[in-house]
Design goal:
294 residues, six-stranded parallel β-sheet, three-stranded parallel β-sheet, globular
Length: 294
């Protein structure tokens, strides 16, 4: 059984991005720059934003932090996005989700300029993904592909079962894997799927992104499968200093012995998400800088 360590893959990605950033700055005289907007004070969101800032700083990327109060109006948020859309020194724009309930997340995403949508959430980028055209891809599914490629795990002619149909992971993951060149046969399962265990046991590659801690048990996987655990969940643990520990959607302890390969939590897919965000930001900077100099 092989442990698919996302941390190792991310380090390789960062090495390449560091080199790309140095070349970019030397050529254009300014760094690739990411603007991150956080509305409110959700502790988990603050932690994620801090992680993105640290990644930018470590690579030499520029970083703009916009921390807005939780009662920020829709108009004020959209006005800030419009300003960043027109700012040529900003190459990527990210609005940290979830937003407070009074804000329209769909409208916010649609307002971000497509060329700066480094989260890959804009409907135009999602549409391009579905029909196999170039565009920004949601960072977590992109990170899963990076792990599979790094460890030379082919999806061609394999049955991939995805647990979860979210716009952030499940749907884009399925779209990526069914494209020519990946050539997987994909099944998406969700809360209304009947005879779930029968389906998951058919999977050559099982991708769990359902948001339920330790949901996937050994009874749900076939011998020798590859398991990719996208879930990151907090469960109470009095033995830990913080009073909780992080687990995935997969019961790693009991499932791992039956797998050919599996990602751990933490240290698996989660660390790849920010790495792919940085990769998308680099791509956006290159495209926008080249457009400006034409």
């Amino acid at each position: 059984m092989q442990i698919l360590t996302g941390k190792e893959v991310a380090e390789k990605v960062y090495e390449s991005l560091q080199s790309d950033c140095n070349v970019f700055v030397e050529k254009y005289g300014f760094p690739p720059t990411l603007a991150v907007i956080l509305v409110g004070s959700d502790p988990a969101s603050q932690s994620y934003v801090q992680g993105k800032k640290q990644a930018c700083l470590s690579l030499g990327f520029g970083h703009r932090d916009y921390h807005l109060p939780s009662d920020t109006s829709q108009e004020a948020l959209l006005e800030l996005i419009h300003t960043l859309n027109e700012d040529s020194s900003v190459h990527g724009i990210l609005v940290q989700m979830p937003l407070p309930a009074h804000l329209d997340a769909d409208l916010v995403i649609q307002t971000i300029r497509v060329e700066k949508d480094v989260d890959g959430f804009h409907p135009q980028n999602v549409g391009n993904l579905l029909i196999g055209k170039p565009g920004f891809v949601s960072c977590t599914p992109l990170g899963v592909l990076q792990i599979l490629d790094y460890y030379s795990i082919s999806c061609s002619s394999k049955h991939v079962v995805i647990l979860g149909r979210s716009n952030i992971v499940g749907k884009p993951m399925a779209s990526l894997l069914m494209q020519k060149g990946r050539d997987a046969t994909v099944t998406i399962c969700h809360s209304k799927t009947e005879k779930l265990q029968q389906i998951t046991k058919q999977a050559d590659i099982l991708i769990a992104a359902i948001g339920r801690p330790l949901y996937v048990t050994e009874a749900m996987v076939k011998e020798g499968c590859v398991v990719i655990d996208v879930g990151i969940n907090r469960i109470e643990d009095a033995s830990r200093k913080r009073g909780y520990r992080l687990v995935g959607d997969v019961d790693f302890e009991h499932v791992a012995p039956h797998c050919k390969a599996i990602t751990p939590v933490p240290g698996g897919v989660g660390v790849m998400t920010i790495a792919m965000l940085m990769k998308n930001t680099m791509q956006a900077a290159l495209q926008l800088a080249q457009k400006e100099t034409q």
